[in-house]
């Protein structure tokens, strides 16, 4: 790279050292040489010998650390060691043995807190968490994200939940009562990113109707920018229509959502959603019934027909599985506002055809790797 360009660079990328550790010495040398000071590192929970060796050198640039159960006694020491620390990720099981950590987190006030709690004993029966303890913890306004997986929430409704500062909530294979889901969401007005995956409500174990109804109602007072819903449980036709028409979010991601009628008949009237990511067997039908197509700026739906996509005139971002004919190539050329098109598979002959067709705005074609 040209030396004159390097000198002008300003680096504010956050590096996850679990992935970039081999490049760390070279990067630090570059940063010192060209006076990049405004960069940060995420320190992995299981630090390698190489990271530990460089600990003192990089300590002022560490913005996030991960804390596991066995490290909770040194929480204060870890936080004070990194003077520019912005947040901590805490893995906890909410067990009685972690009472010291629990009380410390309730009062911690100088860094943001991300809570992760995953149980891997689900195959022999889910572990249990007292739900009201979660309510106690998130009264600390520095707790900004919660992630739970493979748990059963238990407890009585004592109306103890209060408004919190959560910006992200992830619930994966959680069994809980309706009042629990309502209490959590209705008090998380700042939540921007919500992921609900295969949760089961005690009162409605065989259908997903109540989950979608609660999401719909709660979203009206939330600040949702992204909602991801995954379910293998059937829901009713009318609930799906109401959900798709009224859910308040910028990006909606649906995975495996199923309803008990093969087809939807009513129009989907949502005017707030601008980005759709669809991984259902009914992608085409959802796109067909979407009334305000001009509001949609991005579609990610690997299994859909581009004939349906052609009706969305204002698309800027489009992700497709592949293209197999010149007719479908011409479908893409209809979208005059397109900026980026991603594919999972693309024949080089088709790519050559794409590149030979002039388009006023497309700046990038990408072929995604399977992991993406």
Unreliably modeled segments: none
The side-by-side strand order for the widest beta sheet comes to 1-2-3-4-5-7-9-11-13-15-17-18-19-20-21
Q: How many E-type strands?
A: 21
Helix coverage percent: 25-40%
Number of helices: 15
Kindly report the average pLDDT value.
Answer: 84
Query: What structural class results from the helix and strand content?
Result: alpha/beta
Q: What is the gyration radius calculated from CA atoms?
A: 24 Å
Per DSSP, what share of the residues sits in E-state strands of 2 or more residues?
Answer: 15-25%
- Note the gap between the termini: 29 Å
Cα shape: flat
Tell me the major beta sheet.
15 strands, parallel
Task: Please tell me about this protein's structure.
This protein is 30% helix and 24% strand. The chain is an alpha/beta fold and 372 residues long. It has a domain at 299-372. The strands form 4 sheets. It has a 15-stranded parallel beta sheet. Strand 17, helix 12 and strand 18 (298-300) form a beta-alpha-beta unit. The longest helix has 11 residues, at 209-219. It is flat and about 60 Å long. The two termini are 29 Å apart. The mean pLDDT is 84.
Overview features:
single chain, 372 residues, alpha/beta, 15-stranded parallel β-sheet
């Amino acid at each position: 790279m040209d030396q004159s360009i390097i000198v002008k660079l300003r680096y504010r990328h956050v590096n996850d050292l679990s992935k970039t550790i081999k490049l760390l010495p070279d990067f630090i040398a570059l940063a010192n040489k060209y006076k990049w000071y405004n960069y940060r590192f995420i320190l992995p929970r299981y630090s390698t010998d190489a990271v530990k060796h460089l600990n003192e050198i990089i300590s002022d640039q560490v913005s996030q650390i991960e804390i596991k159960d066995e490290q909770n006694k040194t929480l204060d020491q870890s936080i004070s060691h990194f003077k520019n620390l912005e947040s901590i990720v805490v893995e906890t099981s909410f067990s009685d043995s972690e009472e010291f950590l629990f009380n410390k987190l309730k009062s911690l006030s100088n860094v943001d807190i991300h809570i992760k709690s995953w149980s891997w004993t689900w195959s022999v029966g889910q572990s249990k968490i007292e739900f009201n303890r979660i309510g106690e913890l998130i009264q600390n306004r520095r707790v900004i994200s919660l992630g739970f997986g493979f748990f059963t929430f238990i407890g009585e409704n004592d109306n103890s939940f209060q408004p919190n500062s959560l910006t992200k909530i992830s619930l994966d294979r959680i069994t809980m009562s309706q009042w629990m889901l309502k209490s959590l969401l209705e008090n998380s007005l700042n939540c921007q990113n919500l992921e609900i995956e295969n949760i089961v409500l005690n009162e409605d174990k065989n259908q997903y109707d109540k989950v979608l109804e609660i999401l719909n109602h709660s979203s009206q007072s939330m600040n949702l920018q992204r909602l991801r819903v995954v379910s293998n449980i059937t829901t009713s036709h009318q609930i799906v229509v109401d959900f798709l028409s009224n859910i308040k979010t910028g990006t909606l991601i649906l995975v495996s959502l199923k309803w008990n009628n093969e087809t939807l008949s009513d129009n989907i009237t949502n005017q707030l959603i601008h980005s759709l990511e669809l991984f259902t067997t009914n992608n085409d039908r959802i796109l067909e019934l979407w009334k305000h197509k001009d509001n949609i700026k991005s579609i990610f739906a690997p299994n859909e027909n581009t004939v349906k996509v052609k009706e969305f005139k204002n698309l800027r971002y489009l992700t497709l599985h592949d293209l197999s004919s010149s007719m479908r190539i011409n479908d893409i050329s209809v979208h005059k506002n397109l900026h980026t098109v991603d594919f999972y598979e693309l024949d080089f002959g088709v790519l050559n055809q794409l590149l030979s067709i002039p388009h006023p705005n497309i700046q990038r074609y990408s072929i995604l790797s399977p992991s993406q």
